[in-house]
Structures are given as structure tokens and as C-alpha cells.
Amino acid sequence: MFKSWPGALIYYLKCSPFFTHPTLSKDPDDANADSSEPPKRTPGGWKCMPYIIGNETFERMATYGITANFTVYLLKRFHIEAASAASMANIFAGTTNFAPLLGAFIADAYCGRFRTLVYGSISSLLGMVVLTLTAAVPQLRPPSCTAGDHKSSHCDGPSSSQLGVLILSLVLLASGAGGVRPCSLPFGVDQFNRQSAPGRRSLASFFNWYYCTSTAGVVVGMTAVVFIQDSISWAVGFAIPAVCMLFSITALFLGTKLYIYVPPEGSVFSGVVQVFVAAYRKRGFQLPAAEDAAQQEAVLYNPPARSGRHMKLPLTLQFRFLNKAAIKCEGDQVSDAGDRMNPWRICTVQMVEEVKLLIRIIPIWASGILCFVALSQQWTFSVIQSFSMDRHLGPHFQIPAASVGIISLLALALFIPVYDRLLVPVLRRATGQETGLSLLQRQGVGLFISALSMVVAGAVEGRRRRKGVAAAAGMSAVLWLSPQLVLMGVAEAFNAVGQVEFYNQQFPEHLQTVAGSLFYCSLAGAGYLSSTLIAIVQKATVRNGRGGWLAGDMNGGHLDYFYYVIAGLGAANFVYFLVCAHFYRYKGWRPRPRAADGVGTVELDEEAFVREKEGSG
């Protein structure tokens, strides 16, 4: 029937349930719902997860199987100089971490999560195929070079056309990352009913297992696949990730009849700008008294929620000046259907509160960047430490220095099931919260452990230096580096997973894909901040011709001092986070009188707000 697999894929896309079936379950309270519409689906929950988690696991295995050894590939097969290869790899890594922000905007505004996820997956597959061809086809790479020529830098570099094909593969890979990374997790979140207690508990468990299985995929990609690339063949080593990516796409399509498909809702940022513009235009107006609910209802434009998928947010007093954007005045025209005739003059209370959510989240997001600065050391200086230590496991096998950081990933992958199945039930009984720890508490624990890991790393490095070169060579890298790496893995299990869950639960519903991209922006920001910190420390500590703390000869430097600097910054960041957490108000929070005289207030978080809504309904 079809002459090529792209034709079959396009036909399948057009005939898939995403294009032919209804999307969300109908809200029974929606007065505008059309009774003639066919019945819509309810969230499938865990029934959909094998396909979505399988898609993410294979994608991670494929992506990290390609990128983990990419710098070595540039050096050995394309004969690019070390500095240029490192620069190209860093630019590619930064681009792939910032690309999800653009992909998130496209998904939320125009294409929807599923289609963006599919297009991104296909782009990644094509990028991997092109990169595999550069390794398999001799005409697409420079001629082979002897070891002697490598050392003397006499190897021929790539031609313009060969470099163009390589860059094409990187562009396709970065475009794919921009579509896959921000959409995969929010698409999984769409499959759960967040309006019920079982649905919220299942969602919290989903975040844990999603991160656990994707980390397992990373471990396989950075060990088995890298080993094949180094020891067997670059072409085979790149072809395996391409096959894994094909499995990833297949797993995603297998669940199309079960998925909920949330449609795009137009421009996602124009409403944010409209709130600020409308508030500025009405800066001279007076707001009603906070305790006068009737007056607020009369003065502020607060129509009912348009969709059952969106949580109706109550009016809050934090950032109160923005409430002026919802003041109804002469000249503000609203149609009979409730649409604003001039959206730059008047906004709904819902829009104002959604902007406040974003303002509250930004300081919390900033605290996560420094956490990843500490965690990123497992792939840089921990690797350098291992070079001067004994990396043997038994008499015949030596761990590659670049694989030492796998200890952290293993700790992460093993700790998450323990946390989800053993610690959460214990913490739930102790705290009374369904997830054991609140979203902010989980992040705070991770921040504290990340700073502690740097203290341990500094102590281990100090001991290594005091032992001297000969004695340090006999120190087991696995034994001595494991404590700091295990702590890094546990810190990531608390903070990174906590961040992902926090963004997906606290962002406005129509910005869920942007929420997914924010995590990758943290990684990109941490990479740039880490590079800046290294440059500052090195410049400040190089004196009288000495190499400074981060000298090429580790025995002549003071890497332990650098670790302690990061630990100190982490401690300051932890205090900053506690201050931000103290003033943070969860989505759905609202003040209430505690007693009949109205003195004092209590805070109502999102879960309590939903429970109250269900009870009153």
C-alpha cells in the first residue's frame, strides 16, 4: 500500500485518535458544553504509562548513547582539535537544553503536546541516522589517521561538506530535543485525573518512576553503548541509539487509543503581558478593601472557569497591585459570552492569579540552578580525581574514568523506588501529606544534601592530596569517591524530581509544557554558571606562576578548596531557598478567617482546595 515508511507514518498520523477522536472528558458543570458532542475520554492513568515511560526510557538511552561519547568522536574520527571539539560539544549541550523552551511555546500555543512530541521524536531519529551515516560512510568523514599523526596533529580535518553533514545531524538532534524534552512529562501528566485523591497519589508516584526509568536508560546509554563505540565500531555504536529511538516512537504510537489529547490554547505569553499592561493602565484606581468580598465581586471581573481542566484560582492579596488589571470600569466592554472586547484593558481574576503563580515560582526556580552546579561536578572534577586513583575492579578490569559518575546515577535509580515504596508511606503517616513531603520540603532536602556532598568531596580530595602521588595511586576510586557520588544521586532524587513535580503542579494548566522546559533551562544555567565559577576561581588563585586551585596538576592545586567554595554557596543558597519557601503560596491558596472575629488566617494548599471543592459539590 505504501512505498515508503514515511508515507505510512503520515497516513497513521492523520488517522490516529489524536486527529479523529475527542480530547478531554466533558466537564459536567460546563453550561456551554454541547450535548450533541460525542462522549469524551476520561484519563487512563497507569494504563497509558507503559507507552509513555517506554518512549522516554528508549529516548534517553538513545540520546545519551549519542552525546556521552560525542567529544571523543569529534577527536578520533573528525580530527577536530580538542578546544574546538569541547566548544562544539558545549554549544550543542547548551542548545539542546534551551531548545525545549521554544518547543514548549510551540506545543502550548499551536501544535499540542502529542504532535510536538511525535515531530521531535522523528527529528531525533533522523539526526541519529545522519550521524550514523557519518561513521559508516567513509566519504562523510575525514580519512583515517594513525596514532602517530594524531599526536603530531598532522591528521586531515573535515571538509566543508563533511562538516555540513555533521552539523545537520546536530541541528536535527537539537530540534528533536526541543520537541521531546518539554512534552514527554506533561503529556504523561495529562493522563491522570488531578481532581481526585487517588489520581494525585498516582501522579506523585508517576514522577518518581518516570525519573527512575529514564535514569536507567541514561546508565545503559553511557555504559553499554559507549563501550560498543569505543571497543567495537562507531557505526554500530551510533546505529544502536537510532534503533532505540525507533523503539521509542513505536512505544508512543502503541498507546494512541488510550491517551488524552489536550489541545493547544493559542499564544501562551500574551495573557501575561496583558495583565501587566492592564494593571499599569489602571494604576490610579483604588481596589476594594480585602475583607469586603461583596465589593470585590462587584468591582473585579471574575467570570467562571471556561474549562473543567483549569483550576479556578481564588483572589489573593500577594502582589496586590496586579489585581487592578481585573477592575471593571467604564469603557471595558465584555460580550454576552464573557469575552473581553479589549484584552489589553481588562483581565480576569484567573489571569491575574496565573501571573502571580509565575512570579512566585521564579525565585524557587533560581535556587535549583546552584544545586545542579554541585551535581555537575560528578561529570567533571570527580572524573579528573579518578585519573590519579586506582580504578581497578579486580585484577583485569579497569573502570573508564568517564564512567565513574555512573555511581551517582545508580544511586539515583536505586533510591527512587525505595523512597516511593518505603519512605513515602512512613512520611505520609508522620506528616499527614499524601506525598510524604511537600513539594518545597522535598526540594529543600535535596539542596541540603547537595551542599553536604561537596563537603564530603572536599574532605576526600584533601585526604588524597595529603597521601602524596604514590599513595594516592593506590586509593580505590570506587571506594573513596562513592560517598560523594551517592550523596549527589540522593540529592538529585530529592531536588531534581521535586523540581519536576513542583513545576508541573504549580504552573497554570495551559503552561504545563513550558513548565517541563524550565527544568532543562536550570541545567543549561547551571552549566554556564559552573563555567563562570571555574574561570573566576582560576583567575583569582593563579599567582606568581603557580597553577592555582584548579591547576592541570591536581597534586599542585587545591581542588578541595573549590569544593568547599561550592559547599559554601550551596549553604547560602539553602538559606535563600528557606526564605523563598516561607513566602511562597501554593497554587489554590487563599486566606480565611480563623475565628468568628476574623483575626488570623490559615493557608489552604492546592490539595485542600480541591478536597473542599469536591465536598461542596
Automatic annotation (TrEMBL):
Keywords: Membrane, Transmembrane, Transmembrane helix. Pfam families: PTR2 (PF00854). The chain crosses the membrane at residues 117-137, 166-189, 209-228, 234-254, 357-379, 399-419, 518-541, 561-584. It is found in: Membrane. The keyword Transmembrane applies. Belongs to the major facilitator superfamily. Proton-dependent oligopeptide transporter (POT/PTR) (TC 2.A.17) family. This is Nitrate transporter 1.7.
